[in-house]
Amino acid sequence: MNLEERIQAFVKLGDFLSQYTRNGLFKKEEVLYNDLFFDGFKHQIKLAKEHNGWFTDENILYALENWSKALTYSNINKWIKKYHIKDVKAKKVAIIMAGNIPLVGFHDFLSVLISGHDVVIKQSSNDKHLLPFLAKYLEHIAPKLKGKISFTEDRLENFDAVIATGSDNTARYFEYYFKGKPSIIRKNRNSVAILTGDETEKELLELSNDIFRYYGLGCRNVSKLFVPNDYDFEGFFKAMYAWHPIINEAKYANNYDYNKAVYLMSEFDMLENGFLMIKEDRSYSSPIATVFYEHYETLESLKNTLETDSDKIQCVVSNGLFTNNIGFGDTQIPNLWDYADDVDTIAFLLKI
Questions:
Q1: Is Glycoprotein among the key words of this record (predicted)?
Q2: Number of separate domains in the chain
Q3: 128 with 153, same domain?
Q4: Residue 106 is inside which H or E element, if any?
Q5: Positive or negative, the Cα torsion across 87, 13, 118, 350?
Q6: Are residues 19 and 27 in contact, defined by beta-carbon separation less than 8 angstroms?
Q7: DSSP characters for 43-70?
Q8: Could you tell me if residue 324 is inside a domain?
């Protein structure tokens, strides 16, 4: 199967996913094998929701919308044109996926197949319904992919390289277990936003999406703010109010109530508005319904801090303050060439 055929397969998958949107599910007659797969994928979405309370319609369909927009011919070509993906000797690449947000491991899956390798996938129990169905769809539109995609719940064996994502604790296990194999091992990371007090209402509203999308469970969600010493949080809280219906969702509300009780009993200082708490804390990883904040003296000193802690940070959001910062509202819509942990997955796969 050549590169062009692989690209076309994923473009057709993007067309298939474009039918599933937050505005409704719209069956398109021109999409290949729709009679076989359209209703089946609706059922898988239903199963994913029932299995994992964090996987709401809103969150699943948001993820599907973004993947459908990413999987266009122009996007994929822009991504891979800098690589020499020809005459690749296919190796078997194992992927151990996280399950914190819907299809969180899809980029690794795409990268392995687009580069010409075979993939064996060990899914998280939290997200096990969507990807196997999409893999079957790929095999129908591109029969040459049959035999190149497999899933396992057993111990991984007979593979040539591995991409594994987990917590800091599981990463230590991965590093030991896979020490004899080429690997990408991903650990805990969080995203931060830098505020100056000059942000517009629209920018802060976009920041609310970076904080609340997927309930804040993703590594690209903003979990910490850096603010100047005299920062006034009034405008920040006003912008966050757009997400106030989130408190009506049981799992989020339970976490909010629990963490609020812990903070109150511990007599921690915090600010809250009925559905979000902000607490001054030097840590990067904040609990659900909480955002940490820390004051900075100067932007230059903050830049030094962020560089020192770069291995803990996934995204830095700001209004163009530093190179490679992400704009407000853009954390959950990465491009295909925006690699997790800033590790080039395709370059790794072409070297194994």
A1: no
A2: 2
A3: yes
A4: helix 106-114
A5: positive
A6: yes
A7: HHHHHHHHH-TT--HHHHHHHHHHHHHH
A8: no
Looking at every residue in the chain, the average pLDDT score rounds to: 97
Largest alpha-carbon pair distance within the chain?
62
Question: What pLDDT, in 10s, does the model give residues 226-252?
Answer: 999 999 999 999 999 999 999 999 999
pLDDT digits (tens, 9 = 90+) for 279-288: 999 999 999 9
**295 has a pLDDT exceeding 90:** yes
Cα–Cα distance measured from residue 332 to residue 218, given in angstroms and rounded to the nearest whole number:
9
Cα 42 to Cα 31, 39, 327: the distances in Å are 15, 5, 33
| Distance from C-alpha of 224 to C-alpha of 290, rounded to nearest angstrom | 9
- pLDDT for residue 165 is more than 90: yes
CB burial readout 315-343, b (16+ within 10 A) else e = bbbbeeeeeebbebbbbbbbebeebbbee
Q: Please give the model's pTM, rounded to 2 decimal places.
A: 0.96
Residue (of 227, 183, 225, 210) closest to 348 by Cα position: 183
What's the whole-number mean pLDDT along residues 90-108?
97
Strand intervals (E) in the chain: 20-21, 24-25, 92-96, 118-122, 149-151, 161-165, 183-186, 190-194, 222-228, 271-272, 277-280, 290-296, 313-317
pLDDT digits (tens, 9 = 90+) for 11-21: 999 999 999 99
| pLDDT at 86 > cutoff 90 | no
Q: What pLDDT, in 10s, does the model give residues 122-140? A: 999 999 999 999 999 999 9
How many angstroms separate the CA atoms of 121 and 109, rounded? Answer: 8
Question: 228 forms bridges with which residues in the sheet?
Answer: 296
Query: Is the distance from CB of 166 to CB of 126 less than 8 angstroms?
Result: no
Distance CA 114, CA 3 (A): 7
Residue corresponding to tokens 């303050």 = 321
Say if 261 falls within a structural domain: yes
Residues 225 and 122 in one domain: no
Only one residue has tokens 């020499």, namely: 84
Task: Quote the CA–CA distance of 200 and 350 in Å, as a whole number.
Answer: 43
Domain span at residue 291 reads 191-317
Give the total residue count for the chain.
352
